[in-house]
Design brief:
The chain is an alpha/beta fold and 328 residues long. Helix content is 45%, strand content 19%. Helix 3 runs parallel beside helix 6 (171-183). The relative contact order is 0.14. The model is unreliable at 1-11, 269-275 and 307-328 (pLDDT under 50). It binds adenosine-5'-triphosphate. Residues 22-268 form the ABC transporter domain. Residues 288-321 have a biased composition (Low complexity). This is ABC transporter ATP-binding protein.
Length: 328
């Protein structure tokens, strides 16, 4: 990777004026009877890396989908730089929000470079006729797009694989390519859905550095992740979703120490919890087996003691038998 690895979790210039990049208010998403997201407010400011965490099924991806026009929220409003977002994903991308997906969505049979070029289409002005006629305007725009795409591949460390088919990249590099493709739309806000899923510790560390470098380019970031160490090290602010609702929001230390967050992650035993009865049954059976084993051990020890006594007694009897010495 060619990014500057000296960057840290704190924003580069804390005194720089902050602009609200994303402003989600009262976002609710219902699927029939299920409320996946309920009244969630969240802001992301320029220069910030904000984390969104929560247990499985908490509604994190659904919330992302509401922000990016994949879902139209049942209630609430999402603004990007003070403009209400249109409910269409390509328009949201054009407005300035790019994203990656939890399940990588690359064009498997396209090259690495082509995948990034696809990501640029919202920023190219050449229309259909220009493309069909392939005039000078088209060639100029195409050359500029390729140049920018190569810069982005250089940035994520994949320039040397520009001609490889994306399906042949190792998993960690596919995630990097997804990020390069998202950056190709020149976003002001990048949403990352589990960017380190399936990565080894080295790849995770490299991704952390890459995200800091993206932030330093002036792109605000909202990231979903299950790796707590990664998120706490990376983020200026963390919001916690539990069962569709925002439980708490704050800096890493505040969130990490919050007992409700710990309980939501580790789980607290509660009356009638699934499996409680089974656990109790296993414990009873184990206790019973232990008692039986102890009783048996005692019984065996007792028998052994009896046998020893009998033997000793027999020996004593033999020793005491008259004429014994004479028999030897
Ligand atoms: N399209 C859909 N139709 C019906 N229910 C859905 C849909 N999408 C998500 N859900 C439900 O909404 C809830 C929240 O799911 P979501 O995927 O947003 O959670 P998550 O926090 O991203 O989970 P994970 O960490 O496992 O990815 C879940 O109960 C899920 O089954």
């Amino acid at each position: 990777m060619t990014t500057d690895t000296t960057t840290q979790g704190a924003t580069p210039d804390a005194t720089a004026p902050r602009e609200t990049v994303l402003d989600a208010r009262g976002v609710t998403m219902r699927f029939g009877g299920l409320t996946a997201v309920r009244g969630v407010d969240l802001t992301v400011n320029s220069g910030e890396i904000v984390g969104l965490i929560g247990p499985n099924g908490a509604g994190k991806t659904t919330f992302f989908n509401c922000l990016t026009g994949l879902y139209i929220p049942t209630e609430g409003e999402v603004r990007y730089k003070d403009k209400v977002l249109p409910p269409k994903s390509f328009k949201v991308t054009a407005a300035g929000i790019a994203r990656t997906f939890q399940n990588i969505r690359l064009f498997a049979n396209m090259t690495v470079l082509e995948n990034v070029l696809v990501g640029r289409h919202t920023r190219t002005k050449e229309g259909l006729w220009s493309a069909l006629l392939r005039g000078p305007g088209f060639h100029k725009a195409e050359a500029a797009s390729r140049e920018r795409a190569m810069e982005l591949l250089e940035f994520v460390g994949l320039a040397h694989k520009a001609d490889h088919l994306s399906r042949n990249l190792p998993y960690g590099e596919q995630r990097k390519l997804e990020i390069a493709r998202a950056l190709a739309s020149e976003p002001g806000l990048l949403l990352l859905d589990e960017p380190t899923a399936g990565m080894n510790p080295q790849e995770t560390r490299a991704t952390e550095e890459l995200i800091f470098a993206i932030r330093d380019m002036g792109i605000a970031i909202l990231v979903i992740e299950h790796d707590m160490r990664f998120i706490m090290n990376l983020c200026d602010r963390v919001a916690v979703l539990v069962q569709g609702e925002k439980l708490i929001e704050g800096d890493s230390a505040t969130v990490q120490q919050d007992e409700r967050v710990i309980a939501a992650y580790l789980g607290e035993p509660f009356e009638g919890a699934p499996g409680e009865e089974e656990i109790a049954e296993v414990e009873r059976a184990e206790a019973q087996a232990e008692t039986q084993a102890e009783t048996q051990a005692e019984a065996e020890a007792g028998t052994a003691a009896d046998t020893t006594t009998d033997a000793d007694a027999a020996e004593a009897t033999t020793d005491a038998a008259p004429g014994k010495e004479n028999d030897r």
